[in-house]
Amino acid sequence: MKRLLNDHLFGPGPKRILALDGGGVRGALTLSYLERMETLLRERAGGGEDFRLSEYFDLIGGTSTGSIIATGLALGFSVRKLQDLYRTLANNVFEKPPFRFGVLVPKFGRQPLIDALTEQFGEQTLGSADLKTGLMIMTKRLDTGSPWPLHNNPRGRYFDERPKSAALANRHFLLSQLVRASTAAPHYFEPERLQIATDTAGRYVDGAFVDGGVSPFNNPSLQLLLLATLSGYKLNWPLGPENLLLVSVGTGDGEDTLAPDRVMKMTAIEQAMRSLAALMTDCDALVRTMLQWLGQTPTATLIDREVGDLSSDTIGGQKWLSYVRYNATLEGTWLREHLALDIEDVDAVNLREMDNPSNVDMLTRVGAMAAAVQLKPDHFPASFDLTPAGT
Questions:
Q1: What's the pLDDT tens digit per position in 242-275?
Q2: What's the sign of the alpha-carbon dihedral 327, 275, 86, 348?
């Protein structure tokens, strides 16, 4: 018998979390990692072709493009279905109308994305019984400046109606709207307006939401760990390398350095955009640092030359979870050395563009090659295996 949502969230045994970064069309790279992961875990579980990652993972969360993938997986989509969806989304959503310049108005129109998300997720809500496992969608409420991790834990404070509260219960939010909010990257798309409450006169109260990537959690791993373990979120999963496995998948990264003179000659808007991008990079680095510090990991990478990879550092004399991180570096040198990929430096840098649908095929290829090298069966400890019956 397959596990139900209640089994995933509150049943006994070790728990497994899947965290998916933001990154626009670079989500195609994420999906290649997930394709190999799905195959490996299907074999480990003794499952057939109908095996889905939603059976293995007890909580799946994503930011921006990662929220599209996370929502599809939580609904029981196969990785192959999501790969097909991605190609369609990339071509339809990132088609720039000739009158849009991304300065006075967003670079892309919102309707193609709304149409695509509505087609895939329909009228399903965060409280839908069709969600096979735990789901978190990371977005940012810009009118208040607060990050909003929206999740389907029925015991959560805001999931259901509360006495004497005018707030809309989170379970009523449409998945398509929440994903649209999580993907509303400033400069690229306009914010998503969501009704969140009613006032004393019965009038709607709205919030303005943007891409969760402009919160500290474009890499949502740390937020998912907090959701799983902090008492206020009411999941209360136990910590320990034998109790909690967190698998984090990126969308590709790379350093983009400039000469000081080039920075000094930038326009104010260029400086602002570069500063925002640098802040997102810093947040990702902090999240990875914290998790390598907290986690027992076979995929530790160098944080910097001063602190190393933190493999020998502990908190309270121990590691607190099992942690795995997968990502590819979209730089010519790295791709040639690690994947034996014949690619020019400029072409590797171009793969970092978040809104170029012509990159999807190469990103898919890079992700598959990186997954073949990086993703190992022993990264998923036997203590976290499902039984052949799926229980």
A1: 999 999 999 999 988 888 988 898 888 888 878 8
A2: negative
